[in-house]
Design a protein that fits this description.
Shape of chain B: elongated
CATH superfamily of the largest domain in chain B: Bira Bifunctional Protein, Domain 2
CATH superfamily of the largest domain in chain A: Periplasmic binding protein-like II
Strand order of the largest sheet of chain B: 1-5-6-12-11-10-7-9-8
Structural class of chain B: alpha+beta
Number of domains of chain A: 2
CATH architecture of the largest domain in chain B: 2-Layer Sandwich
CATH topology of the largest domain in chain A: D-Maltodextrin-Binding Protein, domain 2
CATH topology of the largest domain in chain B: BirA Bifunctional Protein, domain 2
Distance between the termini of chain A: 45 Å
Largest sheet of chain B: 9 strands, mixed
Structural class of chain A: alpha/beta
CATH architecture of the largest domain in chain A: 3-Layer(aba) Sandwich
Oligomer: heterodimer
Radius of gyration of chain B: 27 Å
Distance between the termini of chain B: 38 Å
Number of helices of chain A: 8
CATH class of the largest domain in chain B: Alpha Beta
Number of domains of chain B: 3
């Protein structure tokens, strides 16, 4: 049945964007105590609650109206193409989606990738679209994490993965061949929430943006 | 996959579901009929070519069927389109306006949201043409049809016990009113920017939209700098020191949503857009306050809409439960140019959000009469059937045990 909801809900992602997201919200006067195992938090503002979910699930909550707004990387939005509103870009969560190969392997540039080579990735749609544009037929192997070990174990010849600093690639003997796209965090909203809770979302946005400018 | 369950996006309806559904269908149909609308039912299969003509996306979204002559058909993904075809063909010489309604299923395979279905039960109306065929495209007649259509929608929502709904209004002509400077920039660049901008708004990508406006502005400045000739546009870009003259467009996606009183402020009182939307808000005098919201950033995803477009939303539902609008060019696709407006509501969503709590099963068990058969001999079964037929004259439900 329909879950009665009288509060504004913000979905934020676990993992790499969590700290920056919390910082951002604190500056918009929304703070909350993290507790073990709890995933839904009351905040310093009575009418706002926070959902803590996997990055890939942020747009799912927002799209279905279970959360009004959310913070998520544009990589997830590119991959999932959810029907949501993308309201604001943020200056954190910068990363690049790259094509990478073993440093000591035969492939030194993109054009050397052989036809039907295996590509391990967490981003099957974006990877497929990229190789299609390049005109290279490839076989996509969809993984959920630790992509870097796929070439080391013979699972694939190539990977497509997110890179923030490049450390993980380097540590696993990989090198980036090409950047597919650049990404950073976004504020997203449910279309119906945008229509019905417009005033709140606009105020929330103006707090987030004004603080961002002050920070710089 | 287990074969004991229906495929994803479909579901079995049990007697209690159907009793509720039937009750709602009755309410909807009686409202439609009371406004003079008559039911029609197009076939389940529609030629893919006809569907594609009205809305190219149907090609992807519909279930396709290849018939014996290798002709492509599709399970109808929509009812407006087949009804438009009907209006232009078999009903073309029937007196106008045509007032048609339907309660029927559509089939789509584009599942996105958690409770989206492949088989969607829809109820709706189409108001086609006008008694004054020479004046039907005039604003007065457009208004008249808009108001009739929305009145029926409001009445239907009220009678289905839907509470707190809002009708969100938008309009395809938004870019026509985007301002003198916008049109000058389009001229300078010799491009129809509104298509690009509209598309980004439709996708809800305000970040890319803002970038696109900025990009257009940069191209415009570059193009202006290449000619030495002074122009008004050039002067405009040069004189504004603080803000770019297109700044209002960048902000547009954040400022075009809200209560009609606030949003209509942005429009010129004399404009057709203002008058068309203002007329609609007058319906609140009859149906109660706060029924409407304007959200110009909500762009229809069907190209067949022309002019007014609206969706029905419910707080916390996360999605629209119905939509509609004008489609003044669609019927001419089938060779019969005339104005039209209509809406469709999803019956499953109406049932989900209806606050009608009336108990349903009781009527069943209370008034049910059972005729016993004494043994399994043919004569006693025949006797019981005969008896039950008599009892049914007085009692609504009689079963044989």
């Amino acid at each position: 049945m329909l879950q009665k909801k009288n509060k504004y809900r913000i979905a934020i992602p676990k993992g790499a964007l969590l700290d920056d997201s919390r910082k951002l919200l604190t500056k918009a006067n929304i703070s909350f105590e993290m507790q073990d195992r709890k995933l839904i938090f009351e905040t310093s503002q009575k009418d706002v609650e926070i959902l803590l979910v996997k990055p890939i699930d942020v747009p799912v909550y927002v799209e279905n109206g279970a959360a009004d707004v959310g913070i998520v990387g544009s990589d997830v939005l590119g991959e999932e193409e959810p029907k949501i509103l993308t309201l604001l870009p943020f200056s954190f969560g910068y990363c690049e989606l790259v094509v990478a190969v073993p440093k000591d392997g035969n492939i030194k540039k993109l054009s050397q990738i052989p036809d039907y080579c295996r590509v391990a990735t967490k981003f099957p749609h974006l990877a497929r679209r990229f190789f299609r544009q390049e005109g290279v037929p490839v076989e996509i192997i969809e993984l959920n994490g630790s992509i870097e070990i796929a070439p080391l174990t013979g699972l694939s010849e190539v990977i497509v993965d997110l890179v923030a600093t490049g450390r993980t690639l380097k540590d696993n003997g990989l090198v980036s061949l090409e950047t597919i796209s650049k990404h950073s965090a976004r504020l997203i909203a449910n279309r119906v929430s945008w229509q019905l809770n417009h005033q709140w979302i606009i105020e929330f946005m103006s707090l987030l943006t004004s603080k961002e400018i002050n920070k710089e | 996959m287990s074969t004991s369950f229906s495929p994803s996006g479909s579901r079995d309806l049990l007697p209690t579901d159907l009793i509720k559904q039937e009750k709602l269908r009755h309410i909807l149909m009686s409202v439609f009929k009371s406004w003079g609308y008559q039911p029609v039912l197009p076939p389940t299969l529609e030629s893919l070519e006809a569907l594609e003509k009205g809305r190219p996306q149907f090609l992807k979204e519909s279930f396709k069927v290849i018939d014996r002559d290798a002709q492509l058909s599709a399970l109808r993904p929509d009812l407006t389109l087949p009804i438009a075809r009907l209006a232009a063909s078999r009903l073309s010489s029937v007196e106008r306006p045509l007032r048609l309604c339907y309660i029927a299923k559509v089939f789509r395979q584009d599942l996105h949201l958690a409770d989206e279905r492949r088989e969607i039960y829809q109820a709706g109306i189409e108001l086609i043409g006008s008694s004054k065929s020479d004046k039907m495209f005039s604003p007065e007649y457009i208004n008249k049809a808009n108001l009739e259509c929305l009145s029926i929608l409001l009445e239907v929502l009220g009678k289905s016990n839907i509470k707190n709904y809002k009708i969100v209004l938008s309009h395809t002509d938004l870019w026509k009113y985007a301002g003198e400077i916008f049109h000058r920039v389009e001229e300078q660049l010799d491009m129809d920017l509104s298509i690009e901008f509209d598309n980004l708004m439709q996708k809800g990508n305000f970040v890319e939209y803002t970038k696109a406006v900025k990009h257009a502005e940069e191209r415009c400045i570059k193009s202006l700098s290449q000619s030495d000739e002074p122009s008004e546009l050039k002067a405009c870009f040069e004189s504004s020191t603080k803000e770019s003259p297109l700044n209002y467009l960048k902000k547009a996606c954040f400022e075009l949503t809200g209560k009609p009183v606030d949003i209509l402020n942005y429009l010129d009182d004399d404009s057709e857009l203002y008058q068309e939307l203002e007329a609609i808000t007058q319906l609140e005098k009859i149906f109660g306050k706060d029924k409407f919201i304007i959200d110009f950033t909500m762009r229809p995803d069907s190209h067949y809409y022309t002019g007014l477009y609206f969706e029905v939303v419910i707080p916390n539902s996360g999605k629209a439960i119905g939509k509609g609008g004008r489609y003044d060019n669609l019927i001419s696709c089938f060779g019969h140019p005339e104005t039209a407006i209509g809406f469709s509501l999803q019956i499953d969503s109406l049932l989900k959000y209806s606050t009608d709590e009336e108990e349903i099963e009781s009527q069943d068990s209370e008034s049910k009469i059972v005729v016993p058969t004494h043994n399994l001999s043919v004569s006693s079964i025949i006797e019981a059937i005969d008896q039950s037929i008599n009892l049914r004259k007085k009692h609504p439900v009689v079963t044989i045990d």
